[in-house]
Q: What sequence folds into this?
C-alpha cells in the first residue's frame, strides 16, 4: 500500500503534516488496516522488513567535527586566499627569479606569519566552541513496551521501533515515536519541550469535532509526538513515524550540518570580493600602462604586484579575529559566553531580536494572581483561597502547576495552619474527561462538605446555585452568562481561570463518587498568571533606544502572549497566530513578518520561517530561546542566543549563552558587541580608504617617474606600520568631534601612534632600511612634511563635517 512507500530523500526538511492529519482522521474501526498492522502487533518478518526500509528509530544529529578538517577550514577565507596568492607571487619573484645571493624572504615570512597566526586563533576558538549535537541521541536512549505477534508484551530499545508497532505508554514515559492513540485512560502529555506551552495536554483515541482535519498538528488530541512525555495516565498507540520522519526529527535535521551564512560572513565576503574585483581591474591596467611607458615588462609586473600588496589589508584577518577574541573576554565578564566569534559581530549589527515569552519576558512560574467571589467582587475574607487550599492540600493525586501555585501562595501568607482544623474524609480524583477534582473534609464541629475546583465550563455544569452579592441564587442562564463574562475579562488579561464550588451538610459519610458532584454552589474563581519580569520592560525600552526591534515568537495562546507583551511595553496592534500565518501567501508573509510584533501559537518550523523571511529583507536577526522547539530557530538566526539552564540541544544550536535569563544581560552583551563591531568597521574603512588613496597616488606617480615608486616589500611594511599620514586617519575618524582639540584618544592609542611615527621616520636611517632599498630623506624635507600633514588634517575635518551634515551620522 501507499502508506508505507518510502519517500525519496530531500534536502529540504519540511514536516509531512498531511500524513499526520490522515493518521488522526482514521476511525478506530479502520486504524489497524490503515497502518498495516493488527491488534496483536507485527510479526518478526514484518518488523525486519520495515527496519530494512526505514532504518533505526534515530533522529539525525551532527557528527563530531574532525580537528584536521576544522583546521583546514580555518584557512578558507577570501582574504587568506589573496594573501596566499601574494605569498606565491613573492616566492616566484623574490626567490625563484632572483639572482643568486639576492633572494628576499622578508615579505613571504611576514605574510605567512599573519596568515598562520590568524587561522590558528580562529581554529582554537571554533574548536572549543562547537560541540556535537549528542543531546538528540540522549533523548532516544530509552526503552518502551511493545506488542508483537507471537510474543508477550516485551521491553525493547526505542531505536528498534518501526511504523506499525503497537506501543504501551504510562506516566513518566517519554513518547518513543510519533503515535496515533487507540486506547487511553486519563492520558495527559506534556509537550512543553516541543511547543513551549507549560500546561500538559489531554490525549484521547477519538478527536472531538473536526480537530483532526485542520489547524496545527501539534494540537491533535489523538496524536502523540516523539520527545514529549506522559505526565499521568496510560495509553496504547500505533507508531506511524520514526526517526527523521517524526516531528522532532524534522527539527533535528533542520539544525544538523552547516548553518546559514550569517550577516558577518556575508559582510566580510562583500569586502573581500570588492577588493578582489578592484585588483582584477587595477593590476592589468597598471601592468599595461607601465609596460608600454617603460618598456620593461618584468618591472611592470613587479609593480602590478606591488599594487595588489598595497590594496590588501594584510592585517584584516588578524585584526578581526583578535578583536572578536578580545570582545569575547569582555562579554564573559558581563555574564555572556561566546561560542562563535563571528556572533559578536552579529550581536552588534543585530536590528531585530525575536524572543520566546516564557522565562525571558516572564518569571517562568505560574503564580496565583487573584481570587474573587462568583459575582466578580474581591474575596476580602480569603474564603475562596481557603477552599482552594483545602482542595489542593488534601488531594493525593498529581499536583499540577496550579495546585503548587495555590500552596505556595498560602505559605507566603502564613495561612497553612488553616488545615489543622479539618480532616480529610474522602476524595474524587481528577480526570481529563470531567476536568475537575474534589475532596471531602470535615471540621471539628462535624460539619462535612465537598470542595470541588476545575475548568470553568465543567464546573458550571455541576452547579445548581451560585453566590451573588452575598446570597445563594439558583443558577440561571443569566448568571451563567455573567460568570462567563467575568472569566472572559480575566482571560483577556492573560490569566488562566478555574472555578471553585462546594456543597455542605452532607448525609453521606464515605465512598464518595463522581455522581456526588452535583447540585453544588459556585462560590468563586482563581486566576493564575506567569508574571513578567520586573526588568523586562526597562530592558526592552533600552533595546529600542539602541535601534533593536523586539518581536515575540511564542507557542503559547494568543491572549496570554498579548497580555505579557503589553505589560512589558511591546505593542500588540499587529499580532498574528500560527494557524493564520500558515494560510498566507509568500508575499503576505513577507509583509506580515515586518509589521507584526507578537506571534502566538507558532510551531518550531514557523519560528524558523519567520526568521528566514526577515533575513531575506536584509535584517540582522537574533533569536533568544531555550527549548527543543527553539533549536531550529536558533540555528537559522544570525545570532542564536540561549541560556545556561536551557536544554542541551538549544545550547548547542546557539552562538551565545547567557548566564542569566534576562534581557538586561542581553543588553550589556549587545553594547559590548557594538564596541567590537565599531572597532572592526573603523579598521576596514580606515585601511580601505588609506590603501586606496596610497595606491592611486603611486599609480599616478608611476606614469611620470622613470622608475618604480615602491617595491612590494615597501608597501607591505607600510601597510603593517602605516606611514605618518595614515596614522592620522585613526585620530580623524574615531570621533565626530575635532580631534586633538575637542576629543583626544586614549593614552594607549596616542602612544602607539607616536611610536609608529618614530619607527617610520627612523627606519630609512637603519641598516635594515638600507637593505630593503629605503633612502634616508634630508632634514629639509620634514618642515614640508609637517605642513602637508596639517593641511591633510584640515581638509579631512572639513570633509567630515560635510558628511555629518549631509547624512546626520558618523562611523
A:
Amino acid at each position: 500500500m501507499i502508506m508505507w512507500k518510502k519517500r525519496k530523500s530531500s534536502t529540504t526538511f519540511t514536516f509531512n503534516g498531511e500524513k499526520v492529519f490522515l493518521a488522526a482522521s482514521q476511525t478506530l474501526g479502520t486504524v489497524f488496516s490503515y497502518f498495516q498492522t493488527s491488534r496483536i502487533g507485527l510479526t518478526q518478518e514484518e518488523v525486519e522488513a520495515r527496519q530494512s526500509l526505514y532504518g533505526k528509530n534515530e533522529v539525525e544529529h551532527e557528527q563530531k567535527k574532525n580537528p584536521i578538517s576544522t583546521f583546514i577550514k580555518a584557512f578558507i577565507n577570501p582574504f587568506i586566499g589573496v594573501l596566499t596568492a601574494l605569498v606565491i607571487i613573492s616566492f616566484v619573484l623574490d626567490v625563484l627569479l632572483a639572482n643568486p645571493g639576492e633572494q628576499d624572504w622578508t615579505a613571504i615570512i611576514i605574510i605567512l606569519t599573519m596568515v598562520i597566526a590568524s587561522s590558528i586563533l580562529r581554529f582554537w576558538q571554533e574548536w572549543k566552541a562547537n560541540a556535537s549535537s549528542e543531546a538528540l541521541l540522549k533523548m532516544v536512549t530509552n526503552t518502551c513496551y511493545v506488542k508483537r505477534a507471537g510474543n508477550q508484551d516485551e521491553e525493547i530499545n526505542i531505536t528498534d521501533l518501526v511504523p506499525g508497532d503497537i506501543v504501551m505508554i504510562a506516566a513518566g514515559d517519554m513518547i518513543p515515536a510519533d503515535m496515533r492513540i487507540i486506547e487511553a485512560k486519563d492520558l495527559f502529555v506534556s509537550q512543553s519541550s516541543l511547543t513551549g506551552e507549560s500546561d500538559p495536554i489531554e490525549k484521547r483515541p477519538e478527536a472531538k469535532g473536526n480537530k483532526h482535519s485542520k489547524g496545527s498538528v501539534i494540537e491533535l488530541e489523538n496524536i502523540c509526538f516523539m520527545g514529549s512525555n506522559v505526565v499521568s495516565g496510560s495509553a496504547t498507540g500505533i507508531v506511524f513515524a520514526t526517526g527523521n520522519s517524526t516531528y522532532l526529527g524534522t527539527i533535528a535535521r533542520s539544525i544538523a550540518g552547516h548553518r546559514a551564512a550569517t550577516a558577518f560572513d556575508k559582510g566580510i565576503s562583500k569586502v573581500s570580493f570588492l577588493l578582489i574585483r578592484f585588483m582584477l581591474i587595477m593590476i592589468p591596467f597598471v601592468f599595461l600602462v607601465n609596460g608600454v611607458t617603460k618598456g620593461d615588462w618584468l618591472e611592470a609586473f613587479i609593480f602590478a604586484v606591488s599594487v595588489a600588496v598595497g590594496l590588501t589589508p594584510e592585517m584584516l584577518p588578524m585584526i578581526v579575529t583578535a578583536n572578536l577574541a578580545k570582545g569575547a573576554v569582555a562579554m564573559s565578564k558581563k555574564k555572556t559566553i561566546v561560542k562563535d566569534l563571528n556572533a559578536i559581530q552579529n550581536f552588534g549589527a543585530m536590528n531585530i531580536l525575536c524572543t520566546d515569552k516564557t522565562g525571558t519576558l516572564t518569571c517562568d512560574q505560574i503564580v496565583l494572581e487573584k481570587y474573587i467571589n462568583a459575582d466578580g467582587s474581591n474575596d476580602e475574607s480569603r474564603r475562596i483561597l481557603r477552599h482552594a487550599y483545602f482542595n489542593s492540600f488534601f488531594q493525593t493525586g498529581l499536583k499540577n502547576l496550579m495546585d503548587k501555585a495555590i500552596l505556595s501562595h498560602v505559605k507566603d501568607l502564613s495561612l497553612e495552619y488553616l488545615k489543622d482544623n479539618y480532616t480529610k474524609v474522602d476524595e474524587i480524583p481528577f480526570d481529563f474527561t470531567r476536568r475537575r477534582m474534589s475532596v471531602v473534609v470535615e471540621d471539628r464541629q462535624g460539619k462535612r462538605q465537598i470542595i470541588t475546583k476545575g475548568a470553568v465550563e465543567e464546573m458550571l455544569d455541576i452547579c445548581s446555585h451560585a453566590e451573588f452579592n452575598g446570597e445563594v441564587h439558583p443558577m440561571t442562564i443569566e448568571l451563567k452568562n455573567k460568570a462567563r463574562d467575568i472569566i472572559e475579562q480575566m482571560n483577556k488579561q492573560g490569566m488562566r481561570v478555574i472555578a471553585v464550588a462546594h456543597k455542605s451538610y452532607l448525609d453521606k459519610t464515605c465512598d464518595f463518587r463522581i455522581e456526588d458532584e452535583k447540585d453544588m454552589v459556585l462560590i468563586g474563581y482563581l486566576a493564575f498568571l506567569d508574571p513578567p519580569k520586573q526588568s523586562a520592560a526597562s530592558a526592552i525600552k533600552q533595546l529600542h533606544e539602541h535601534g533593536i526591534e523586539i518581536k515575540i515568537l511564542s507557542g503559547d495562546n494568543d491572549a496570554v502572549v498579548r497580555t505579557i507583551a503589553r505589560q512589558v511595553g511591546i505593542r500588540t496592534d499587529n499580532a498574528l497566530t500560527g494557524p493564520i500565518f500558515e494560510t498566507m501567501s509568500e508575499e503576505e508573509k513577507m509583509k506580515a513578518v515586518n509589521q507584526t510584533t507578537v506571534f502566538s501559537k507558532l510551531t518550531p518550523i514557523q519560528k524558523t520561517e519567520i526568521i528566514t523571511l526577515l533575513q531575506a529583507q536584509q535584517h540582522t536577526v537574533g533569536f533568544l530561546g531555550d527549548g527543543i522547539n527553539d533549536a531550529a530557530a536558533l540555528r537559522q538566526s544570525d545570532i542564536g542566543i540561549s541560556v545556561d539552564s536551557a536544554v542541551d540541544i538549544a545550547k548547542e544550536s546557539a552562538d551565545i549563552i547567557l548566564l542569566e535569563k534576562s534581557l538586561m544581560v542581553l543588553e550589556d552583551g549587545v553594547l559590548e558587541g557594538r564596541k567590537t563591531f565599531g572597532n572592526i568597521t573603523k579598521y576596514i574603512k580606515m585601511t580601505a580608504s588609506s590603501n586606496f588613496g596610497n595606491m592611486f597616488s603611486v599609480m599616478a606617480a608611476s606614469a611620470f617617474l622613470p622608475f618604480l615608486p615602491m617595491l612590494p616589500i615597501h608597501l607591505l611594511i607600510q601597510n603593517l606600520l602605516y606611514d605618518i599620514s595614515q596614522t592620522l586617519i585613526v585620530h580623524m575618524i574615531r570621533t565626530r568631534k575635532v580631534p586633538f582639540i575637542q576629543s583626544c584618544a586614549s593614552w594607549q592609542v596616542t602612544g602607539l601612534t607616536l611610536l609608529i611615527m618614530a619607527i617610520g621616520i627612523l627606519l630609512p636611517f637603519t641598516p635594515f632600511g638600507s637593505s630593503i632599498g629605503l633612502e634616508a630623506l634630508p632634514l629639509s624635507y620634514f618642515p614640508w612634511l609637517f605642513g602637508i600633514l596639517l593641511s591633510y588634517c584640515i581638509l579631512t575635518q572639513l570633509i567630515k563635517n560635510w558628511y555629518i551634515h549631509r547624512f546626520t551620522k558618523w562611523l
Remarks:
- The radius of gyration is 35 Å.
- The first strand starts at residue 143 and ends at 147.
- The longest helix spans residues 663-704.
